[in-house]
Every structure is written in structure tokens, then in C-alpha cells.
Write a structure and sequence with these properties.
7 strands, Rossmann fold, 7-stranded parallel β-sheet, alpha/beta, about 45% helix, binds nicotinamide-adenine-dinucleotide, 7 helices
């Protein structure tokens, strides 16, 4: 795909799962520099080492809690000093703290808000002015089919629905500056996040699913690569389900 050569990319939550698959795909597409941003530095460093071995991309691991604005400011300043201005940003880091609402604690609510939603403000805010000045940028945010409601996930669903409104608004505000902003809404993808789902619930979900299988992280990464390519020049403010078959 066009638009990766010479570019610098940041993928948050890229130490494992979908984020790692996206980072790997960007390296395969030939980005110049890539930052694996994650709050788990040890795992992020392992991921960066694996990616550095693949090709010519300079890959760095950066420890950062994307829910904390000061940390994000500092981390991105360091990334730009080391790799250059950020052209491609994938806001992928996310967590679940599931509970039925009448048993949900404020801590469960607050943690998910910070990591899944505040991170959108934090990471986009620190790169948007540079992208506007340079007249180019690609932003992809991870939403979820849970945005449309899912019992036990009032906190998570609220953040993933928030991502949709945020994405559509930032896309419109950035459209005249060569910046596209899109979101991916995966359904069930084979990562560690899925381990939190009880086995019986997973079995039932797969029986209901038209493809009767989980998605692969690489399948989400392929979509992210398109949305971050130069070919994706007239698609913005769009939420694309990556769900095997659109069941929402
Ligand atoms: N796996 C799925 O089925 C699925 C479905 C829909 C949406 N999603 C979304 O896709 C994204 C990736 O999910 P995944 O399944 O790969 O998750 P995962 O749990 O496998 O990986 C998430 C990564 O994010 C990192 N992370 C968590 N909080 C962070 C923070 N505050 N700061 C920095 N890094 C942090 C973790 O250390 C981890 O490396 C998430 O936004 C998730 O909500 C996943």
C-alpha cells in the first residue's frame, strides 16, 4: 500500500494483541520509524525487539499510560525527538473492567474512561497541530461493536460509543488539512482481552456468530493499514465494523 515509506507511526497498546499486529503490519509496509507505546515496558521492549529484527524500520518501545495527559505529552515529545514528527497514529490501547451496572464500582468506571476515552483526547491533542501544519495525517481509533450496548460493559460501551462521536467530529474538523480520522469497531478478536469472557459465554457467542470463529489480530491490522495509507484519502469520519459479518 502507498503512504508508509518515510512515515513515522505511533501505535498505542502495541505490546501485544491487535496493537502488536498493527505495528507489525506497518513495519511490513515499510514505515521509517515506529513507536510501540504501552504501559507495560517489558512487553513493549520485547515487541520492539521482534519488530526491529523484521526490517529497516527503527522501532522504539515507550512506556506511557495513555490515560495520563502529562505522561502522553512527555512520551510523544520523546518520540518526535527520536523518530521525527508523527504522521500515523493508532489509538489502540484499551481495557475492560466488566461488571453488571448495579455492581459496578466507580473505580471500574473511572479506569475504563481514562484508558479508553481520555486517551483519545490525550494522544490526538499532542499530534494534531503538527499534522495540521504539515498538511498530512492519518488517525485510527479503536472502537468496538460493544459501542452499541453489551450487558456487563456499561463503562466499556460508553467509551467505545464516545470514540465514535470523537472520531466523526475530529474528522470533520481536520478534513481540510489532509488529515483523515477513522475508527475500527472489532467484534470478537483472538487476544488476551478475550480471556476475561467466561467460557460458556464465548461458546454461545461463537455459535451465534455467522462465521463461527473469532477474528485474527492480523485481520484488524489489514484494515488499519488501509485506513493509514495514502490510498485512504477520501474516507474519513467512518466507523468500520471488523466483525466477520455485520451483526449490529
Ligand atoms: N479483542 C477484541 O475482541 C476486541 C474487540 C473490540 C475492540 N477491541 C479493542 O481493540 C483494542 C486492542 O485490544 P486487544 O484485544 O488487543 O487488547 P489486549 O489486552 O490484548 O492489549 C491491550 C494492550 O494495551 C496496553 N494498555 C492497556 N492500558 C494501557 C494504558 N493505560 N496505556 C498504555 N497501554 C495500555 C496493554 O498493556 C496491552 O499491551 C482495545 O482498544 C480494545 O478495546 C478488542
Amino acid at each position: 500500500m502507498r503512504g508508509f515509506e518515510g512515515r513515522v507511526a505511533v501505535v498505542t497498546g502495541a505490546a501485544q494483541g491487535i496493537g502488536f499486529a498493527i505495528a507489525k503490519r506497518f513495519v511490513e509496509e515499510g514505515v521509517k520509524g515506529l513507536a510501540v507505546v504501552d504501559w507495560n515496558l517489558e512487553q513493549a521492549q520485547k515487541a520492539a525487539d521482534e519488530l526491529n529484527a523484521l526490517g529497516t524500520t527503527q522501532v522504539i518501545a515507550v512506556k506511557c499510560d495513555v490515560g495520563n495527559y502529562e505522561m502522553v505529552e512527555e512520551a510523544f515529545a520523546g518520540i518526535e525527538a527520536e523518530l521525527g514528527p508523527v504522521d500515523l497514529l493508532v489509538n489502540n490501547a484499551g481495557i475492560t473492567r466488566d461488571a453488571i451496572f448495579h455492581k459496578m464500582t466507580f473505580q471500574q468506571w473511572d479506569a475504563v474512561m481514562r484508558v479508553n476515552l481520555y486517551s483519545m483526547f490525550n494522544c490526538c491533542r499532542v499530534v494534531i497541530n503538527g499534522m495540521r501544519q504539515r498538511g498530512y495525517g492519518r488517525i485510527v481509533n479503536l472502537s468496538s461493536t460493544s459501542a452499541y450496548g453489551n450487558p456487563g460493559q456499561a463503562n466499556y460501551s460508553a467509551t467505545k460509543a464516545g470514540v465514535i462521536g470523537f472520531t466523526k467530529t475530529l474528522a470533520r474538523e481536520s478534513a481540510s488539512k489532509g488529515i483523515t480520522v477513522n475508527a475500527i469497531a472489532p467484534d470478537l478478536v483472538k487476544t488476551e482481552m478475550m480471556l476475561a469472557i467466561p467460557e460458556a459465554n464465548m461458546k454461545a457467542a461463537l455459535e451465534r456468530h455467522p462465521m463461527h470463529r473469532l477474528g485474527e489480530p492480523a485481520e484488524v491490522a489489514a484494515l488499519a493499514a488501509y485506513l493509514c495509507s495514502e490510498d485512504c484519502s477520501y474516507v474519513s469520519g467512518t466507523i468500520i465494523n471488523c466483525a466477520g459479518a455485520d451483526c449490529t
